[in-house]
Amino acid sequence: MPVEPLKSREEWLASLPRIYAAAGCVLRDESGRILLVKAGYREHWQFPGGTIDLGEGPAECAARELLEETGIVRAAGELLAISWTHPSDELDHPAEHFLFDFGTVPDGTPVTVPAGELDDHRWVEDAAALELLGPARSMRLRAALEAKADGRVRIVTTQVSGF
């Protein structure tokens, strides 16, 4: 059996799988409700968040996206959950999604969603959030709720992207 020659560093790096990376926020109001946002191009509601820019870390991304999507300025708190999504018919690469605790803001905190990117926002109880988020994001929320309860970060592995 012939031995394959070693690849150059550039060839080896080019052969590695790429991933899509994103970060999101679990932000509550004083009544305990979670902030969700709705993009017109998606069936389900989602957490404020988005894809990580080059040179940006996951926590920075989550804080930037919260500001861009809601007008709320907050720093990311503890990492609650990481979701790893395998490639599928929907995504040609794996996806990794970081979900951070953004704490609590006062009831009635103003939310400004950007026209053209998001259509609406809602503050909802956990049970309603699990329904509105759809399969992929509800798995992330369940994991985040468990992590918040015991302080241990959760890893969710799935075929359902929600990306």
From TrEMBL:
Protein name (database record): NUDIX domain-containing protein
Lineage, uppermost ranks? Bacteria, Bacillati, Actinomycetota, Actinomycetes, Kitasatosporales
* InterPro entries named in the record: Nudix_hydrolase (IPR020476), NUDIX_hydrolase-like_dom_sf (IPR015797), NUDIX_hydrolase_CS (IPR020084), NUDIX_hydrolase_dom (IPR000086)
- Look up keyword Chloroplast and say if it applies: no
Q: Which residues form the Nudix hydrolase domain?
A: 17-149
State one Pfam family annotation. NUDIX
Q: Which organism is it from?
A: Kitasatospora misakiensis
Q: Where are the transmembrane segments?
A: none
Keyword annotations from UniProtKB, A to Z: Hydrolase, Magnesium
Its family remark reads: Belongs to the Nudix hydrolase family.
